From TrEMBL:
Belongs to the SEC15 family. Residues 419-771 form the Exocyst complex subunit EXOC6/Sec15 C-terminal domain. This is Exocyst complex component. Residues 70-239 form the Exocyst complex component EXOC6/Sec15 N-terminal domain. It comes from Sphenostylis stenocarpa.
Length: 808
């Protein structure tokens, strides 16, 4: 461990640093007989070696005293070296101290000189300092005055802006007022140190903004009131445009239909060019939104645009709810146009606001308004439709509702709910329409004279016959022309045509794109439930005559033929090509029903004719069944029958088709034959003689001759040659022939029966023969013949009677 090392030793004095190099010298000193050991320890310390082992060894050997002695020696040696070094540098230190003392003297002199110069300077600069303080004070005053002037100018500018703002407000120029107010507010925060003025302005700014807000709300309220008044005209104008477009589309479709029906080749642009005039919607529907734009912008400048949006929406919703309320003081059929035009105008305005007002409304808000209106309007329509009792009124409302819907559909509003309401009222409308047409049909039937129509002019023929395709030939007849039908036919066809148009009008522009099948269904219902039922009621009424029944039967035939026209007309109005309705499944069920009604008319006609004939054919009362003489002119009843047959068969030949004439005539003659046979079989006739049979023979010849004449004069010999009218009298003829036969017993001969008596019933003949007395009952008749020889004919008749009894 080294106690002294070769280093630079620094000695410090005030102001002077002296650096002395100390060199360690190794000296060998041997003292007190231990010089060798002391020398070793000194060398170790001088060389900086570690003396730890030596110290440890001294203590281990128990000789620490020697070590201490050696250390003391080293200490003395080092003290001698230090003393020698100090002696060496002492002279240099003294010189340095002397130099420092000289510097101190110079410093004192310099200080004295400085104090003198300072005194002189103070004497000279006192006046200048006073002037400088005055100058600085002047500069301060000037600065303050400049600031005061600048502040005054700022205040004047702010006050001028305030005056300008007031002027703008008084003139209603609120946007300019707000801009000026913004400048005032900025100047107030930046350039107005005047606290009082600043406070006044800061207090007035919110008041002014609130005043502007109120003023703008007043203007908006006035605009809302004005636009509400104008909404009806706006809606009517828009709906009027929809009417024009619809009419133009109808004309184009009608033109297209005619072209397709005429099979014109090379249609090209002629068939499909749509001559549509492009009209800018905004240019047609002119209304001023400037106050609203201004209010919206000013509220935006006020930073309360969201508040204004809510204010506008709330008030418009209130207006809408008010518009949706209807008064009970005026019938709905008189106010519906105004009602829907008002709503249409409302949403047209809102659409313009949505598109142009810079976010004042959003699409969701308009949709909410629309849904609110739809809910109330559909409820109103359902209620009003349920109360309506007039088909024309319901149709008028429906048409206007569809126009309302098509108008607002252009503004992307969903109108499906309206169409659903109209569709749900379809049955109600058609029921009303059916009832109105039923009453018209009943009136037509009641006013019909049931005479064939006389058409005097070609124009009348076109209106009455050709317009309903009632002609049986393409050749124009000569005039005057007697039509086979009565006036009920064209009148009823007009009613049916109006019914078809009413049905098509209601179903048009509704939920169904192709509604021909629906129209056909209701047309069938009208023809079956109205026309056919009315015909049956007339046929089955007790106060109808034979000519009327014949005319009704003919009219029904014409109605059957008109069914095809009705179906074609419905297809045309529905825009369906006529060729597509030629399929069997497209026919009307009413056509078959009318055919059944025609059959009912013939049955009723036949029944009425037979009833009338039966009134004349009271043979049991009007015929003498046991006359003494014969009458070649026949009984009186047969002449009445002939007159009656002639009275209805002559017009029947003119009114009815040949088949119908044959059917009615054959039924009448067959009824006459049955009546003759029934008279012979009647319980009222207890007995009859040969003269009565001969008289019936004369009657039968008369009626047979009339039947033959009518049969061939009517032209039935060509179509019904196998069974003539005369053949319809076969039962009566065969019965009379049997009663007058010379060999009546041959009746049961199979060959003769098949040839001459096939129409007779054996049981009925047996009952009749029981009443037959071969000779007339005179006063002396029975006595004269009592013992006379029975004639061969009588014998044969008795044989037949016996055989018939045995047969039965």
């Amino acid at each position: 461990m080294s106690l002294v090392s070769n280093e630079n030793c620094v000695v410090q004095f005030p102001g002077i640093h002296a650096i002395m190099d100390v060199k360690t010298k190794r000296r060998g000193v041997i003292e007190n007989g231990n010089g060798g050991e002391d020398m070793v320890l000194a060398n170790l310390i001088a060389n900086g070696d570690d003396v730890g082992p030596l110290v440890r060894l001294s203590f281990e050997m128990g000789r620490p005293e020697g070590l201490l002695h050696q250390l003391m020696y080293v200490v003395k040696q080092k003290e001698a070296e230090i003393e020698e070094m100090c002696k060496t540098h002492y002279e240099e230190f003294i010189l340095a101290v002397d130099e420092l003392r000289g510097v101190l003297v110079d410093a004192e002199e310099l200080k004295s000189e400085l104090q003198g110069d300072n005194f002189k300077l103070q004497q000279v600069g006192s006046a200048l300092l006073d002037r400088l303080e005055e100058l600085l004070e002047s500069y301060s005053i000037r600065k303050n005055m400049t600031e005061a002037i600048e502040m005054s100018k700022n205040c004047i500018q702010v006050l001028e802006l305030c005056v300008k703002c007031n002027s703008h407000i008084s003139e209603g120029q609120f946007y300019s007022a707000l801009k000026t107010l913004d400048l005032v507010e900025k100047s107030c925060t930046q350039n107005i140190p005047a606290k009082a003025l600043k406070e006044v302005i800061e207090k007035r700014i919110p008041v002014i903004k609130l005043h502007i807000e109120k003023k703008m709300c007043i203007q908006v309220n006035e605009w809302m009131a004005d636009i509400r008044c104008a909404a009806k005209n706006i809606g009517e104008t828009a709906i009027g445009r929809a009417v024009t477009v619809r009419q133009r589309d109808k004309e184009m479709l009608e033109q297209q239909r005619k072209i397709e029906e005429q099979n014109i080749s090379g249609l090209g642009d002629l068939a499909y060019t749509l001559d549509a005039e492009e009209v800018e919607e905004d240019s047609v529907l002119q209304f001023d939104l400037t106050p609203l734009y201004r209010a919206c912008h000013i509220h935006d400048c006020l930073g309360i645009k969201e508040k204004f949006r809510e204010y506008y929406y709330t008030n418009r919703l209130l207006q809408l709810n008010s518009d949706l309320e209807i008064t009970s003081a005026q019938p709905f059929v008189e106010s519906y146009q105004t009602f829907f035009a008002q709503i249409a105008g409302f949403f047209i305005v809102e659409d313009r606001v949505l598109r142009t007002a810079g976010g004042l409304l959003v699409a969701d808000q308009v949709e909410t308004l629309w849904q609110t209106a739809v809910a109330k309007m559909t409820s109103l329509l359902e209620e009003q439709f349920s109360c309506m009792e007039s088909a024309p009124h319901l149709l008028l409302v429906k048409d206007y509702v569809t126009l309302f819907g098509s108008t607002l559909r252009q503004y992307e509003h969903d109108i499906g709910t309206f169409l659903d309401v109209l569709d749900s009222s379809c049955d109600k409308y058609h029921l009303l329409l059916l009832e109105e047409c039923r009453q018209q049909t009943i009136d037509v039937f009641g006013n019909d004279p049931y005479d064939q129509m006389e058409i005097k002019k070609e124009t009348d023929y076109e209106n009455i016959v050709l317009s309903f395709d009632l002609q049986t030939s393409d050749i124009m007849p000569e005039f005057p022309y007697i039509a086979p039908f009565s006036s009920m036919v064209p009148d009823t066809c007009r009613i049916v045509r109006s019914f078809i148009k009413g049905s098509v009008d209601y179903l048009s522009y509704g939920i169904h794109m192709n509604f021909f099948d629906i129209v056909r269904k209701y047309l069938d219902k009208f023809l079956i439930d109205v026309l056919n039922v009315t015909l049956l009621e007339k046929i089955n009424s007790g106060n109808i005559t034979v000519p009327q029944l014949m005319q009704i039967a003919t009219n029904i035939t014409v109605f059957e033929r008109a069914c095809d026209f009705f179906l074609r007309h419905a297809a045309q109005l529905c825009g369906i090509p006529v060729r597509s309705i030629g399929r069997p499944q497209a026919t009307l069920t009413a056509k078959l029903i009318l055919k059944t009604s025609r059959e009912a008319a013939f049955i009723a006609l036949q029944s009425l004719v037979n009833t009338k004939i039966g009134e004349f054919m009271t043979l049991t009362e009007s015929v003498d069944w046991t006359p003494e003489e014969t009458n070649e002119n026949g009984n009186d009843y047969i002449h009445e029958v002939i007159i009656y047959l002639d009275s209805f068969m002559s017009p029947a030949q003119q009114i009815l088709p040949l088949d119908s004439v044959y059917r009615v005539g054959s039924g009448a003659f067959e009824h006459i034959s049955n009546s003759i046979v029934a008279a012979f079989s009647s319980d009222s006739v207890k007995r009859f003689n040969v003269n009565a049979v001969i008289n019936i023979e004369y009657d039968l010849q008369i009626i047979e001759n009339f039947a033959e004449e009518r049969f061939y004069s009517a032209g039935l010999g060509v179509t019904h040659d196998e069974v003539s009218f005369k053949n319809c009298l076969v039962e009566a003829r065969q019965l009379v022939n049997l009663l007058l036969s010379s060999q009546p017993e041959n009746f049961l001969n199979a060959d003769i029966w098949d040839k001459n008596y096939y129409a007779l019933e054996i049981k009925k003949v047996a009952a009749i023969l029981d009443k037959f007395k071969d000779s007339p009952d005179g006063i002396f008749g029975s006595l004269a013949n009592k013992n006379a020889k029975l004639s061969a004919r009588k014998k044969s008749m008795d044989v037949l009677k016996k055989r018939l009894k045995d047969f039965n």
